Each structure stands twice: as C-alpha cells, then as structure tokens.
Amino acid sequence: MMTQQPYVGRFAPSPTGRLHMGSMVAALASWLDARSRNGVWLLRMEDLDPPREVPGAADDILRTLEAFGLTWDGEVVYQSQRHALYDEALEELKLEGRAFGCICTRKELASVSMNGLYPGTCKAGLSEGKIPRSWRFDMPKEVQSWLDVAQGPSAVSGDVLGDFVLKRADGHWAYHLAVVVDDAAQGVTHVVRGEDLWTATAAHMAIQQALNLSTPEYVHVPLVTNEQGQKLSKQTRAQPVSPSDAAHVLTSALRVLGQSVPVLDEPKIMLQEATASWDVSKIGGKSGQLTS
Ligand code: GLU
Questions:
Q1: Ligand 1 shell residues, CB under 6 Å
Q2: Chain segment 130-148, per-residue pLDDT in tens
Q3: Residue 146 sits in which domain range?
C-alpha cells in the first residue's frame, strides 16, 4: 500500500498593506488546496523589510483571514524573529562556495548592467581588505523545471535571474533566501501562490539544491488585475477586501480560480462547498480582471 505524504501548505503574506482581492485569491487557493486534501495550513508573516511595512497591517491581515473563515494551524510564524536561521543558511552557502560577497553599489550596477542582471563584477572574489556590502547567490545558468498544476509544465532558465542578492547592503535578508529556509524548516510540501512568483521559483529551487533541501510542489494561481491591466497591489491602490461582503468576495475569488461557485450563503458554508468541489486542474494560468 502506498503511504501518502502528509500535506503541509502555507500562506505567507508580506505586511505591506491590507489584504486585497489579489492576496485573497492566493490565500483562498492555498487554503482550499490544503483543506481539500486534509492538509495542514500554516501562516507565516513575511515581515523582513521594515521600510516597506505598514504598522498594523500584519494584525489586520490575520483578523481579515479569520473573519473569512480561513483559519490556520499552529502559531503564526514571523520572519523577523528568524534571522539566526537565515544566517546559518548563508554561512552554509558560503562554505559551499555558492554565496559571494559584493561591494557594488546600486548606482554602480545601474551604470554597467543593461538588463538589470548582476554583471558578475565581484564573483571572482574581493581584493584584500574589501568588506562585502551584500551577499549574492551564484545562480546556475541551467534551466529549472517543475510541473505546475495550474500553469502546466514550467521551465525557467537561471540566466533570467542572474546572481541575485541573499543579504542586502542595508543588512536586511532577501525574500528568496528566507522563503526557502522557512518552507524547509516548516516542512512545507505544497506552495500555492500568485503567478508573479513563477520566475522566482527557479531561484528557490536552485537554493534548495545548494542547501540539499527537498523541493515542494509549486502551483501558481492567476493574479487579479485592475481595469488598466495592472496587478492589484499597494502601488496600484488596491482596495482591501471587506469581511462584511465575504460571500461576494469569495464568489469573485472562486471565479478567478476557475472553480464552481456555491450559492451565496454564510462564508463558512460556502467554504465547505468550495472545499468539496475544489479542483486544482481547473485553475489555468491566465491572470485577469474580476468578472463581477
Ligand atoms: N510574501 C510574498 C508576498 O506577499 C509571498 C511569498 C510566497 O508565497 O512565496 O508576495
């Protein structure tokens, strides 16, 4: 008899604003995928970038999820309290020769790099006495591929990412390193998140390989765009979702995800029905506007 691997999913918002329709779609998709497979659903607050964070946003996101019935298992994990783990991972990457120190400033890089990718300036090592400003990952050029149930067979060449930053010159940890370390530390087996992170998956897989960590299954769900075709975000002034309108919000989110939509009812009942009929293969990889 085959034993099934236990399912561990997660939602990992950055507290840069309140929960809008785009983040709601990602949260709902990962919650439904986990619950429909009797899985665990974890909540991790990605509060690594204080300059971009909004005071009160983390609590507001948690209260909103709860009000919609998207409850999580265990304690919320805060990345701001996990710096020691990221440090350990960086030390390991240095030992393996996969992380290198860089003294380039943003301005210097902007003047030499035409495509925004790191030109390799410090890759061969720094001269005596130079102190690294940031740390970068030696990204292999090879193609990373995975089967993404929503997007289909996926392949991203390492060239597209270049040698990205692991620890920034201002001392902050980069998302790519922290997300890989935490997904592994929390035993995450399934990552369901927005399509905007599809390319980033190649960076995450390369770090996993360098640290000898297993790769979860990745599914990237459609983004929601506004009338101008822009991704909903704080920058595009996306409106927060309101729990007082939960049934309509859930209906719209399920439509974006290509799912059958239960009749309007208590959010709890709608979630039960949506869990029962959840079909990840119906998602499809097309970002688009809300239809109602
Ligand atoms: N914190 C990231 C964001 O809010 C998502 C990270 C992830 O799901 O991997 O965009």
A1: 12-14, 46, 179, 193, 197
A2: 999 999 999 999 999 999 9
A3: 83-167
